[in-house]
Amino acid sequence: MVLPALCCRVACLESPAALNQHLRALGTTSAALPLSSAFWSKGADERHAHRRWLPGAAAASAAAVMGAVVAMVTGSLEARGEAPASSAAPSAAGGEADEQAAALSKLHEWLTSQGADLSKIVIKPSQAGPGAGLGLFSTAAASSPRPDAPWWSWLWPHRGGGAGAESAAGAREPTTLASFPLDAAITVRTACNDPRVGAQFSWMLDKHLLDERTAVMVYLLIERLRGDQSRFAPWIRALPSTFDVPIAFSESEAAELRGTTLHKASAAMTKRLRETWSRLEAPLGTVARELGLPAPRWEDWVWAYCVFWSRGQSLPVPESGSASSALVGHSSNGSDPKIPIQILEGLVPGLDFCNHRLQPSPQCWWEVVAPQRPPQQQPATTAAPPAAAASSPGAAATSSRAASSASGSPSSPSPGGPVVRLQLHAGSCVRTGQELYISYGDKSNEELLMLYGFALQDNPHDHLMLLCPLPPRAEWDDVMFARMELLQAYGLRPQFFLPHPDQVSPSATAASKSGGKAPGSTASTSRRAGSSSSGGSGGGSGSAATDSDAAEAPALHLPGEVLDTLEVFVLNFQELAVRSKALQARMEERRTARAAGTPLAAMSQHSPVLDLASLRGRYERMSGAELRHYLQALGLRMATLTTFIRLLEIKVTELEGSEGTGSLEDDERLLASMAQQQQQQPAGQPVAGQQPHDGGHGQRRLRAALVYRMGQKRLGRAWLVRAKGELTTLLALMRDMQSRQDALERAKQ
């Protein structure tokens, strides 16, 4: 009865009319179930035959109901097999809509001609929001089973399947929605195999005049200048012509980032880009003249840079099978130190239109899959690990060109070569017309805005970067040189990243420390701690935290690397020498253990563990020697906290002071006002303050800058409240312990 049940479910998912037919059939079957006494008067054989039929009829009826319920629960059941008209993205008016439809049709035809399988998806304007551009949409309902679900879970989802079912489910292939041949991707091998400019690219890479990433950007620029003559013309025409990343901001737009790390970083990146362009402009002009193309401009270089960083991927290409299975196989085979994966950096036309989503979780992910080869046909050489490939552009480019010669020219994709598959996550489902999303990674708003031109409100991956101010190197004394040497020996830098304090769990902090008892306090505060409730008008650090805030703040849990970094800058010269000598002894022990083949334990945190709540509960039972020991450790922690608070105050002043962008409360009011104007403004008309014909760039850039800097201000305030509260608690404990020590000394006298 599996086949009728399967047909019932598929039909119900695809057509409501079929659902009505099955429900009517269910009613007819149900009406026939009450049996008359004549049935029981039949012979035993006849009753047995009917009993064989009854379970099958019940299963078919249950399948019809189950299919309808699953369809309604998963959202697959619609009034029509297409996406609702109300959810469609607003289209351009008149001729623009026709031009866009024609361009998308040509793009679909071109991708198909390159070997892409787009039978289950379509490319059209995204519904992710303003500025999202194009997106990928499903053209048919699809689902992917959970890893532990038996094969019949679609029919009877609450029945267990045992170990055999789990193993069968684990072997099931992921649900693939689209695939794109790797030979159609734009990588360094594409540039080196180009019949007209490949020789020049190979020469520049061999001479280290270009690294792998810059080569891809330069190739993108040349292909854009080629126009309709480019092999990638349909795809390039579908790309945005401008981007909302900070390096493309005007001077007034960049001023909205004052006081943030991104403001300085984007200025430094723009400077490096101009230096690179000044080096490339002349040779690229010569190449353009030889090809009969217009001279490249600065705007073309910025466009190529933005396309690469906003749409590119690091593609893990396995020797055989999927990249994930290759990594699993390598981890299970500890004897082979080489990873059978080659890393290529580039762009995959078609896949690059898939947008990012954080919540709800994206339905899709992508993976590179190579043709499965028997073990005896595996190549003799193994690619370098990803770290080596990324750290050696010349070697990576050479290996990429060698691999490209074996896989054929990029102008004629090999039908049997590796492909990039867009797949459903296990347990996910999509309905017809639904937009497909992937994850760009656990990126902070700083990264999202810098690379992609947008920021997410309440981003759980946001962080605050603090820099430890350093004097010019020419002014360093022996103490500063000792600090930097110890910091380098720890593998740290004079900077650190702070997530929201609620995300630093006490257990995670204790796990990174050497010995001691884990902190017992697990108090947490609201994610918006230190925002509007902190008061103040944004004049500086005083607006971020008050004495009452500090007194009521939950316990502070700093990551181990933050404590290590801060303590290096408060130790005196003698303490630095002791730390350095101890570190050298530990490193010598590790070298000896490594030579002897002894397993090595992970390097633990170097700063001592101080659980203030535990010390508060037992300091009255301590001896004089113990009190002196802990008072010395608490003194170091007090100096560390004072330094940390000072760095936070500097950061908050930069963000909210006169040199920054005002208070957090002002930003919140501005963002709410923009949202209200957007809702009240008729479609197609610019909102107040938006320049005509700017395509909405100004408003999108302002909103992204607002969301990013608001997150930075909230993080700064939250950490400042937490740190001041910790310092208040620590000082009170030190006062009580000192009093206890004085009492013990008086008792001895």
TrEMBL record:
InterPro entries: SET_dom_sf (IPR046341), SETD3_SETD6_MTase (IPR050600). Residues 533-542 have a biased composition (Gly residues). Signal peptide: none annotated. Coiled coil: none annotated. Residues 378-411, 505-532, 675-692 have a biased composition (Low complexity). Residues 373-420, 503-548, 674-700 are annotated as: Disordered. One of its GO terms (molecular function) is protein-lysine N-methyltransferase activity. PANTHER family: GRIP DOMAIN-CONTAINING PROTEIN, UNCHARACTERIZED PUTATIVE METHYLTRANSFERASE. This is SET domain-containing protein.
